UniProtKB/TrEMBL annotation:
This is Dendritic cell proliferation. ATP binds at residue 40. Residues 11-350 form the Protein kinase domain. InterPro entries: IKK, Kinase-like_dom_sf, Prot_kinase_dom, Protein_kinase_ATP_BS, TBK1_ULD, Ubiquitin-like_domsf. GO terms for cellular component: cytoplasm. It comes from Desmophyllum pertusum. The keyword Nucleotide-binding applies. One of its GO terms (molecular function) is IkappaB kinase activity. PANTHER family: FI05319P, IKB KINASE. Its main location: cytoplasm. The lineage of its organism: Eukaryota, Metazoa, Cnidaria, Anthozoa, Hexacorallia.
Length: 571
């Protein structure tokens, strides 16, 4: 342990945050107020660089001021060695590379986290270009995570040692960067040492961004020759010969053809809709329908239904949307930005489509387990342990998705039952209204029938006393007979209506009984008990934690063994 300091800051060499060829970064603090910072301290090799190169990062950061770019606070010298230091914002959340090394992220970030990274990195790079700068070393290790006061995270670009000012029409000849993230032309010049007069522009950062985003989305690099970075010629072949639209190229064995793909791997944790290229950088509004629906803020309900149809196969005409147990029927012309806020735990429900036989849930793709080595050694235990921990976290994620699915089913069933109950109550109300109208009609009919019967009796009495010509009397008798027949038919209709009303009354009583006794809710509560049972998820979580602890133990043993061997060699 050794305490180092400058005129204003102090740090302990044990508080190492990162180390490179030309220096190291430590956690330090201000001598007077105790505020913490990141101290980037040059070593002797770093001090051997030209002054212009050493001052480049300070000068670049001094011109930048953006939420998604690490802040610069001061430049001083270490008192003992007189080596230069740069005082920067402390990013306590670690780098994206460190996060990707965590088995929980072995198959890429969760969708919401990935979206935040894309948003923040794009914003930081936009500011960089507006200031006429190129970074030239973009990679997960140079993107830091910082916790905000509200518990959320923001991502910031860091390490501007290779950055420089570059106008839109300018180019540069020098090569910087990390092999796996280099543009093919830079790789050819810097790694393969093939000289040429080609100048490079700001577009090299875009290549690095693409590789970085793929790495964060999937947990692996997009271009992987057999043997890794040692197979440099094949690496350059993959990146330089890649066809437009292909986003990955993998060589699985020596001399084998490259396997190209224009899609993300099956194990990625991004949703189907998000993986569509046209949406990647234009996400405006997210609506949760168990899965996520991405839609631009100014698009309307028709587009929303179209996107649902793409994911579910249910046409717009068959869709019934529910939100918080009520039917969701927005103004057809209202923009999607006016729709209610949704989330994974507060999503919409869609009912509709053709009847399908019950089937099991769609399985989340889990990579196969590796073949275990026949012999055990400290050199391989750590690598195998990491793969097992990665798979365990993949299983845990899959189980979590199944748990979410059962909870979504619960919400769906509850929504259907609540709406069914609401419809039943409307039916009861309609039945009562029909009964009321029937009673009124019955009273009117009774008065009408009584009047008509009396009228017929009067006519018949008069006809028996009138001695008019028989022809005229016969006509009157026919008219009286017609009135009598009409009255009788109305009485018959009344009988039929009475039977119908009795049926409606029985229907109302049945519905009222179902509503009042909540008969269907017995099944709901049984399903709720099963759906909210987290014991199976807790078991998987416990196993996953145990597997990771074993891996960390192997990793620690390997580190100590390597350190001991280096010590023995030095002796």
């Amino acid at each position: 342990m050794e305490i180092r300091s400058s005129a204003t800051y102090i740090w302990n060499t044990r508080d190492l945050l990162g180390q490179g060829a030309t220096g190291a970064v430590y956690k330090g603090r201000h001598k007077k107020n105790g505020d913490t910072f990141a101290m980037k301290v040059s070593n002797n090799l770093g001090m051997m660089r030209p002054l212009e190169v050493r001052r480049r990062e300070f000068e670049v950061l001094n011109k930048l001021n953006h939420e998604n770019i690490v802040k610069l606070y001061a430049s001083e010298t270490e008192l003992r060695s007189q080596n230069e230091i740069i005082v920067m914002e402390l990013c306590s959340g670690g780098s994206l590379f460190t996060l990707l090394e965590n088995p929980a992220n072995a198959y890429g970030f969760l969708e919401d986290d990935f979206k935040q990274v894309v948003k923040d990195v794009a914003a930081g790079m936009k500011h960089l270009r507006e200031q006429g700068m190129v970074h030239r070393d973009l990679k997960p290790g140079n993107i830091m995570r910082v916790a905000k006061d509200d518990g959320s995270f923001v991502y910031k670009l860091t390490d501007f040692g290779a950055a420089r000012e570059l106008e839109a029409s300018e180019g540069f000849m020098s090569v910087y960067g990390t092999e796996e993230y280099l543009h093919p032309d830079l790789y050819e010049r810097g790694v393969l040492r093939k000289h040429g007069n080609k100048a490079f522009g700001a577009m090299v950062d875009l290549w690095s961004i693409g590789v970085t985003f793929y790495h964060i989305a999937t947990g692996q690099l997009p271009f992987r020759p057999y043997g890794g970075r040692q197979n440099r010629d094949t690496m350059h072949l993959i990146t330089s010969k890649k066809r437009s639209g292909m986003i990955s190229g993998v060589q699985k064995s020596e001399g084998e053809d490259i396997e190209w793909s224009d899609k993300l791997p099956e194990h990625t944790r991004l949703s189907q809709e998000f993986c569509q290229e046209r949406l990647l950088m234009s996400i405006q509004c997210t609506l949760h329908l168990f899965t996520k629906i991405y839609i631009k803020q100014d698009e309307t309900f028709a587009k929303f239904q179209e996107l649902i149809a793409v994911q579910t196969g249910v046409s717009a005409a068959q869709q019934k949307l529910l939100f918080k147990y009520d039917e969701f029927k927005p103004d057809p012309m209202a923009p999607s930005s006016s729709y209610p806020n949704t989330s994974d735990d507060n999503h919409m429900v869609m009912i509709g489509g053709e009847y399908m036989s019950p089937d099991r849930l769609l399985l989340h793709k889990i990579p196969n387990l590796p073949i275990l080595p026949e012999e055990y050694a400290l050199e391989t235990d750590s690598a195998v342990g990491k793969i097992m921990a990665n798979r365990a976290y993949c299983c845990k994620y899959a189980v979590k998705q199944y748990f979410r699915a059962t909870k979504a089913m619960l919400v769906t069933i509850e929504s259907i039952l609540k709406n069914l109950k609401k419809d039943m109550m409307l039916y009861v109300s309609f039945c009562k209204q029909i009964e009321s109208e029937w009673t009124a009609l019955q009273q009117i009919s009774k008065v009408c029938y009584t009047s008509q019967s009396h009228l017929i009796w009067v006519f018949e009495a008069l006809l028996s006393k009138i001695t008019e010509p028989q022809g005229e009397l016969e006509t009157i008798r026919e008219e009286v007979h017609d009135i009598k027949m009409w009255t009788d038919s109305k009485r018959q209709s009344e009988t039929e209506l009475r039977k119908t009303n009795e049926g409606i009354d029985r229907f109302r009583s049945l519905i009222s009984d179902v509503v009042e006794t909540d008969r269907f809710y017995v099944f709901l509560e049984t399903f709720r008990k099963d759906a909210e049972n987290q014991s199976f998820f807790n078991v998987v979580s416990t196993y996953t934690t145990s597997i990771e602890e074993i891996y960390q133990s192997f990793r620690k043993d390997k580190h100590h063994t390597s350190h001991s061997r280096r010590f023995i060699v030095c002796r």
